[in-house]
Amino acid sequence: MGSICNKAIGVFFEYDTPRIVHIRSKKVGVINRLLQLIIIGYVIGYAIVYKKGYQEVDAVQSAVTTKLKGVVYVNQSQYPDITTSVWDVAEYVVPPQENNAFFVITNLIETPKQTIGICSEDPKVIGSNCTTSSQCPAGKVLPAGNGLLTGECNTTAGLCLVRAWCPVENGALKPPDPPALLGSKDFTVFIKNNIQFPKFKVKRRNLPDNASDEFFQTCNYGSHSIDCPILRLETIVREAGENYSAMAKEVDMRNILDFFNDSMLAKCRFKLNHPEDQYCPIFILNDIISLTGSNYKEMALSGGVIEIQIQWNCNLDLSVTECVPKYIFRRLDSADYKISKGYNFRYAKYYKENDTEYRTLFKAFGIKFILSVTGEAGKFNFEPFLINVGSGIGLLGIATVLCDIAVLYFLKARHLYKDKKYLQVVGDDAYKQLDGQNDEDKSE
Amino acid sequence: MGSICNKAIGVFFEYDTPRIVHIRSKKVGVINRLLQLIIIGYVIGYAIVYKKGYQEVDAVQSAVTTKLKGVVYVNQSQYPDITTSVWDVAEYVVPPQENNAFFVITNLIETPKQTIGICSEDPKVIGSNCTTSSQCPAGKVLPAGNGLLTGECNTTAGLCLVRAWCPVENGALKPPDPPALLGSKDFTVFIKNNIQFPKFKVKRRNLPDNASDEFFQTCNYGSHSIDCPILRLETIVREAGENYSAMAKEVDMRNILDFFNDSMLAKCRFKLNHPEDQYCPIFILNDIISLTGSNYKEMALSGGVIEIQIQWNCNLDLSVTECVPKYIFRRLDSADYKISKGYNFRYAKYYKENDTEYRTLFKAFGIKFILSVTGEAGKFNFEPFLINVGSGIGLLGIATVLCDIAVLYFLKARHLYKDKKYLQVVGDDAYKQLDGQNDEDKSE
Amino acid sequence: MGSICNKAIGVFFEYDTPRIVHIRSKKVGVINRLLQLIIIGYVIGYAIVYKKGYQEVDAVQSAVTTKLKGVVYVNQSQYPDITTSVWDVAEYVVPPQENNAFFVITNLIETPKQTIGICSEDPKVIGSNCTTSSQCPAGKVLPAGNGLLTGECNTTAGLCLVRAWCPVENGALKPPDPPALLGSKDFTVFIKNNIQFPKFKVKRRNLPDNASDEFFQTCNYGSHSIDCPILRLETIVREAGENYSAMAKEVDMRNILDFFNDSMLAKCRFKLNHPEDQYCPIFILNDIISLTGSNYKEMALSGGVIEIQIQWNCNLDLSVTECVPKYIFRRLDSADYKISKGYNFRYAKYYKENDTEYRTLFKAFGIKFILSVTGEAGKFNFEPFLINVGSGIGLLGIATVLCDIAVLYFLKARHLYKDKKYLQVVGDDAYKQLDGQNDEDKSE
């Protein structure tokens, strides 16, 4: 029909729609509608609505800081080997700062007044026993040894001599029971967490905006009234039971961030699952341990590792005030382990007297708390929505395919349907037949 | 049509194409083409091209190290309570190392020569006031207290006696104003960041390869010439204004990593938004604080928390040299807070004299810098591309559905169209009619 | 056609299927089937099976702790400037704890007995040279300087006088060669890694459950038997070669976590790529460095940064016992750098004598190990599977489009095919022709 221009414009005035064979059949109709309903139900009900397939997601970005408070007194008569009797924050938090973690000493073995010299190796070190010097090859360091073998054997003690910080730590000593710093269970940690979902330009904090220092002070150690979110770790431990290898116990600590006020903080004390008592981002260590299903005293003995997970799963199609954190506590070390049960490390304090350096070695057992901020936010976005819709439409084609199979191969009237559905055209040599109209042509 | 074999082979020589009703109608044609253009425009223009739906993405994996430089002198006459007068890196970075973070002391309160003993509790501690001993129950630790109550009241002072590191810290003391280590604003931090996108086997660094130590030395403290990327935090603070609770001020610090040379580093000084002056990964602390919209002196008073985000968003379909980091600075603490404004922690230095241990307690106020490396890389991949294309084709079906509705229900000629579109076939009992051809059959 | 009710019910008893033009043509048939096979092959073979398009993925969440063991002796005669001769864990791990990282001192420069006072600046500091006092402006701190200029010049030494910790560190000193703590190459690090995939409720550890402390003790330093997974870093360095700027060498350290037993640990020593010798999560530092392709001695001289990546890529459709970690070691600093080669930082030990504070400054060179846990788990889920299927069905439409183009425009019989495929209907004014049947109508 004329020129290319006409054809091009013509394209805009044409509409192609497939010719449809409309079969009125109860059997096939019901199967067809059923299949379509299932597919549509899945796409809309499950993929789009339930699994939020209409949302774009963004992972949380976060920064956390912590601050501990608390003092414990270690009775010299009960613990004669521990030279310091008052342990405050500067004493029991070693190192004073860590990023996304903090450590609290709960028990310790002190080896005071060590100076570099030559002395007997610790009998618990494998290979330290000797009867002759040949059993102590000079220059070697025994596995888990304290120093360098000098090549001599202290035949009296039956132990190799080493060049080390002497006297060496006594490997036979078990950490004191009960734990020296068991009082640490009443310490509190104030966790401040700032997060953002950059794709959606949303920033949140796990703190309320209008409370004061004074209230946080009393809130920490307040009476057992019912409305404070301070985690009484003791309580939580008991309530969660003893099975720390089970799924972490979750505490839904919705910090009702936007209507928190001073007076609530003044009287508050956390109660598990209490709708109003979940406000303070101040946790008592005992409560944290209990929430993992462990017992503080048992854990304080040889130490352990706790993961504090702050989970921000937010649906930003709702009000942003609904975007609150959830705290999950999980114990990571396991009492099942014979290997390296608990958690400990060594550090030292250094002194000088008359130009000689000496040190006190601390084998510090304690609880390492590792902070982990996770989560994602979802918000409506056309893209994932339309991908799901487009795929859903593609899936509807399956209903047609299956019903076609039923109609063309299994129903009684299948020959009729085949006739009606297919217009047979003979192929490559068809053009030869263009002149002579034949049966197939007319049967269309 | 003989055996199965023939049928199987026959499948390869057949082609099924839907029969199309070709309607030449201006109204419907325009609607149809418009809908198709919108859908195709969305799929190609938005989902695929603009949102890079043709790319596979990979999140960044990163490691960061930092190194601070700087010295500040604290005048004893101005700050009589601070016993150390020269503060260098070993003094003000506590602890000496943190992973993905560093802390700089900007102000402090010293309590020197503390030894363990019995003394009056701090009057600022709630519950420390007393007139009789019964008000100081032995064994208890007051909230935010310094030690264990002995059970006695110092009636002269009107304060409970505690077993603690004595003398206790004076809770009434405010951090000195102006901040003792205000000079820290001129300190520099050298941030070294290694990243990789493992899926695409791409590794990048935020450092140029061919600069020398000497130039980084002069580059740090160079004159105010215009071409250095050292962040003059002082400048950035002013330029960003005072509103730190607003969206973080972004500095597009494209380290032009691959054509950086020594002489440029020698003279360089960062200027916000200057196309060439963004080279050094060396930041002056004052500049970082300013970039968040804060004032260094105000922040140094009680401390604070800054997040330094190194963002690597790379399009790996372009040259890998375009994959450069972007630095975003955000202040995390808030002056709105009455709670725990600023940032501080306590640590101590230990000494021994005549076998008695004593310590100097430091309440260190300062700025905690938390490093966060984020970002993702995208690269063309058939998978996401074809998923988008497939969904797009499915979406085109919507155009047909909508136009069919218009054609069959709203146009004048709808009855004709219905006739032409649908071939009516009566269902289950149709086979009975196979023998007798009827009208519906012929009307096809 | 009665009421709406009838119509609604009628919908369930109807089935619409497109009328198909069935062309028997070898050419088109083959092209069509080929295109369909390619598309189906891509969708099923590549997108779904190979790229696991049927799986939902979840990123790993992790917590890691480390513990070092080892002692090294520093010979005073070889290193007269180093005052401590025995270096154990409390000495060489500074700070004692870091989250997701640890640092080991391998070399150092000590500046003992520093006290605050006035002395000459270090000649290596740029600007420290002077002949007159005017060249030393009071109150200024030189770049990389040690203290505050007093305004006076020590004309004898030709250096500006500074108020600093005196004597200042000698900037001309190079770290000792060979490294003072070269013995650190035999230290071992025990890495404990807990991970979880929360979406699938799967928790894993990189440790076996049934080994004891004693075996880990001997396992560390055991003989060179073939079945232990302890990484002999010395070996790995050699085997990986010297090219640390190349792709990180991977060690497939499958901890066969669920059938590990004590006796295997007792005798074990890691051998690269040995199917059974990959059990201990205990690494010898030398082995780690070697695995990156570096030489320990060279790295220990000025220090460096190593990334230890623990990669958990798990297919949870298989047994969960197959979910094991893979360790990848990568060196992050580069010897290509003239800038800040290696890794070092400064810290100090403090002492008091007669009420004067003095300190020993340590410039510690060493290896910073940064731990990075990455990975994701996949598990079958209908959603991603059906999205791929739906998109695939959409893609099949492309085959039809392409074959239609071939059939309608390129084959000899194209006019016949066009006739058969399209039922021409004239549009808007068609209703006028409803009365008069015309040629176009009849040609259907």
From TrEMBL, chains A, B, C:
UniProt-listed Gene3D superfamilies: atp-gated p2x4 ion channel domain
GO terms for biological process, alphabetical: calcium ion transmembrane transport; response to ATP
Disulfide bridge partners, by residue number: C119-C166, C130-C153, C136-C160, C219-C280, C314-C323
Cited Pfam families: P2X_receptor
GO molecular-function terms, A-Z: ATP binding; extracellularly ATP-gated monoatomic cation channel activity; purinergic nucleotide receptor activity
Protein keywords: ATP-binding, Disulfide bond, Ion channel, Ion transport, Ligand-gated ion channel, Membrane, Nucleotide-binding, Transmembrane, Transmembrane helix, Transport
CC terms in the record's Gene Ontology section: endomembrane system; plasma membrane; postsynapse
Subcellular location field: Endomembrane system
Main location: membrane
Superkingdom: Eukaryota
Transmembrane segments: 30-49, 385-411
Protein residues bound to ATP: K67, L68, K69, T188, N344, F345, R346, K363
Family, similarity comment: Belongs to the P2X receptor family.
Entry protein name: P2RX4
